[in-house]
TrEMBL record:
Any one GO CC term of the record: plasma membrane
Transmembrane segments: 34-60, 72-95, 101-120, 174-198, 204-225, 232-250, 262-280
PANTHER family hit by this protein: MEMBRANE TRANSPORTER PROTEIN MJ0441-RELATED, MEMBRANE TRANSPORTER PROTEIN YTNM-RELATED
Keywords, sorted A to Z: Cell membrane, Membrane, Transmembrane, Transmembrane helix
UniProt topology in membrane: Multi-pass membrane protein
Similarity comment: Belongs to the 4-toluene sulfonate uptake permease (TSUP) (TC 2.A.102) family.
Protein name from the UniProt record: Probable membrane transporter protein
Top-rank taxon, per record: Bacteria
C-alpha cells in the first residue's frame, strides 16, 4: 500500500511538471519503473496506459483554460499516432539506445536556445497569424511519437522545444497543444503494446496509482500555464530541457569521469536557477515601468 501511495505522488508530481512545462511525465515515470526492476517494454507499456487517462484529463484542462491551438493538434496527432504505434510494436527490436545521445545533444542545444531567447529576447515575439507548417509537423509528429514509445517518453521533450524555437505560438499554447495531442499518441502506443505484449504484461496496480496522481495534478498544471508569464515559462522549459538531456549525454561520454557528473549537474542547476531569478527580476522591472507609465 505504501508503494502505491508513493506511485500516486510520483504520478501527481510528474503530471504537474508535464502539464505546466509540456514534458517529463514519461521520462520521470519510466525512470522510476526501471529503478524498481520493470523491463523497458513493460515499463513503457504501463506508462502509456496511464497516460491515456492523464493526458485526457490534461487536454480537457488545457482546453478549458484556452491553452490549445486546435489546428496544430489535428496536424500533429495523425503522424504522431502512426509513429507511436510503430514504435510500440517494434520496441524490442529497435536500437533506440544508439540514437539517444544524438537526440539528447540536439535537444540540449535547443534548450540553450529556448532559455536564451526567453531570457534575453523580447517577451512578445510571436508571429501574428502564423502557424507551424504541415511540412514541419508531419515529420515532427512521426519522430516524436516513435521516440515516445521506444523510450517511454519523448513526445513533449521533442515537440515542445521545436515548436517554441519557431516563435509562431504563445508559450502557453505550445505547452497546451503538445499536452492535448499527447492523448492520441498515448492511445496509439497503448494499442501497439497490447498487440505486441498482451494485457498480462501491464503493471496494473502501479499504473492505476500513476493515473490517480496525474488526474489530480492535470487541472492545477493547466491553470499554472495560464497565469505564469511567458518569459518565466520559457526559461523554466528551457532549463528543464537542458538538465534532462545532460544526464543522457554524460552517461554516453566515457571520457568524462563519473566523479565530475555531480559538479556538472550542480553547475547546470545553478545556471537554471540564475536564469529563473533573472527572468523574475526582468518581469518585476517591466511591470514597475508599466505601472509608472500609467
Amino acid at each position: 500500500m505504501k508503494k502505491l501511495i508513493v506511485f500516486a505522488l510520483i504520478g501527481f508530481a510528474a503530471q504537474l511538471v508535464d502539464g505546466s512545462l509540456g514534458m517529463a511525465y514519461g521520462v520521470t515515470s519510466t525512470s522510476l519503473l526501471l529503478l524498481f526492476g520493470i523491463a523497458p517494454a513493460v515499463a513503457s507499456a504501463s506508462i502509456h496506459m496511464a497516460e491515456v487517462v492523464t493526458t485526457a484529463a490534461s487536454g480537457l484542462s488545457h482546453l478549458k483554460f484556452g491553452n490549445v491551438d486546435k489546428t496544430v493538434v489535428m496536424r500533429l496527432i495523425i503522424p504522431g499516432s502512426i509513429g507511436a504505434f510503430t514504435g510500440a510494436c517494434f520496441l524490442s527490436n529497435l536500437p533506440g539506445e544508439r540514437a539517444k545521445p544524438y537526440i539528447a545533444a540536439f535537444l540540449f542545444v535547443l534548450g540553450i536556445y529556448v532559455m536564451s531567447r526567453f531570457l534575453f529576447g523580447k517577451e512578445n515575439r510571436v508571429k501574428s497569424g502564423k502557424k507551424p507548417p504541415t511540412r514541419l509537423l508531419i515529420p515532427l509528429g512521426l519522430v516524436a511519437g516513435f521516440a515516445d514509445s521506444t523510450g517511454g517518453g519523448g513526445w513533449g521533450p521533442l515537440s515542445t522545444p521545436v515548436l517554441l524555437s519557431r516563435n509562431e505560438m504563445e508559450t502557453r499554447k505550445v505547452i497546451g497543444t503538445v499536452d492535448t495531442s499527447e492523448f492520441a499518441i498515448a492511445v496509439s502506443a497503448t494499442l501497439g503494446f497490447l498487440i505486441s505484449l498482451g494485457p498480462e504484461n501491464f503493471h496494473w496496480p502501479w499504473m492505476i496509482a500513476l493515473m490517480a496522481g496525474g488526474i489530480v495534478a492535470a487541472p492545477i498544471a493547466a491553470w499554472l500555464v495560464r497565469i505564469i508569464p511567458s518569459r518565466l515559462l520559457g526559461v523554466l522549459v528551457g532549463g528543464l530541457i537542458i538538465v534532462t538531456n545532460a544526464k543522457t549525454l554524460l552517461n554516453s561520454f566515457d571520457w568524462i569521469p563519473v566523479t565530475w557528473h555531480a559538479a556538472i549537474y550542480g553547475f547546470l542547476y545553478l545556471v537554471w536557477a540564475g536564469g529563473v531569478a533573472l527572468a523574475v527580476r526582468k518581469l518585476i522591472i517591466s511591470r514597475k515601468r508599466a505601472f509608472l507609465s500609467q
